[in-house]
Amino acid sequence: MNYPTIEDAVGRTPLVQLQRIGAAEQAARGTVVLAKLEGNNPAGSVKDRAALWMIRGAQARGEIKPGDALIEATSGNTGIALAMAAAVMGYRMVLIMPEDLSVERAQTMKAYGAELILTPRSGGMEYARDLADKMVAQGKGRVLDQFANADNPRSHYESTGPELWEQTGGRVTHFVSAMGTTGTIMGVGRFLKEKNPKVRIVGAQPAEGARIPGIRKWPEAYQPRIYDPAGVDEWVPVLQDDAEEMARRMAREEGIFGGISSGGAAWVAQQVAAREAGATIVFVVCDRGDRYLSTGVFPA
C-alpha cells in the first residue's frame, strides 16, 4: 500500500464562512465572506504551494538535483516552506532574511535544517534580494527566486484557484489577497478570470508608513517580475493598526488565528463586503498567528 507523504498534504485547505464580523449586515444583503485557511498547510502557510512547485519545476527542467544548495531571500513564510520542502527533497537551504522579522519564523526555518543569514533592518527585503544575487554570482548556490519564478503563480493557478472554484460551487464574485511576491493573487486571479471574467480581483497593499509582514508595495526597481498589474482590478491600502486589530478580532470573534497580513486581507474583504450585495467574497488567511507572538501584536 502506498501511503501519502508530507508533500501530498500541501493544499486542499478548508474554506470557512465568517460567522460574526460583519455577518448580520452581510446576511441582510445576501453577501458572504469566506476565509481560505492556508495555515493548515504542513509548514503553516500559503507559501507551501509555491515552494513545492518551484523545487519540483527546477528539478523537472534539470536545473537542480538533490544535494545542491538553494538560496532564497525571504520575509519568512516562503523561507519556512522552502526549508520544509528542501528537507523532504534532499537540498541544502540557505535563507536570507531581514533581522527585524519575527523570532518564531527564524527558529522554525532552523528547525527544518536551513542555514539563516540575517541582513540589516534598514536594508529591508531589497538588500536581502541583492545579497542572494551576489551569492549566486559567487557560485554559492542557486536562487529559485520567488519574485521571478513562474512556478510561484503556477502553483496557485493549478491548485488554489481550482480549489476555490470547487469550494464555492463557482459562485465566487470577489477574490481578496495580500500582495507580497504577488504569486497568490496572480495565479488565483488568472484561474478565476478564465472561469468567469466578472470575478473581481482585489489586492491588499500597505498604506503609507505601514510595515506589515507579507504585504508589500515594491519600489519600481524591485517589482516582482511575475506581477502583471492588469491581473488586479483594485488595490486597497491597509493601515498597520487596521491589519493588526483585524488579526486580533479574527482570533477573538471567529476562532481564526492568522497573521498580520491575513488581518489586512480580512480588513479589505470587509470593506468590499460593506458595499456589495449578493456577493461571495473570498480572502486568504496566509499563515498562522503563532508566528507573530513575539511581535506583541497579540496580547500576552
Automatic annotation (TrEMBL):
Domain Tryptophan synthase beta chain-like PALP positions: 6-287
Pathway entry: Amino-acid biosynthesis; L-cysteine biosynthesis; L-cysteine from L-serine: step 2/2
Stored CDD domains: CBS_like
Cofactor: pyridoxal 5'-phosphate
Record Pfam families: PALP (PF00291)
Catalytic activity of the protein: O-acetyl-L-serine + hydrogen sulfide = L-cysteine + acetate
Domain of life: Bacteria
EC number(s) recorded for this UniProt protein: 2.5.1.47
InterPro entries for this protein: Cys_synth (IPR005856), Cys_Synth/Cystath_Beta-Synth (IPR050214), CysM (IPR005858), P-phosphate_BS (IPR001216), TrpB-like_PALP (IPR001926), TrpB-like_PALP_sf (IPR036052)
PROSITE patterns for the chain: CYS_SYNTHASE
Alphabetically ordered keywords of this record: Amino-acid biosynthesis, Cysteine biosynthesis, Pyridoxal phosphate, Transferase
GO molecular function terms attached to this record: cysteine synthase activity
Family stated for the protein in its record: Belongs to the cysteine synthase/cystathionine beta-synthase family.
Protein's name according to its UniProt entry: Cysteine synthase
Organism: Ottowia pentelensis
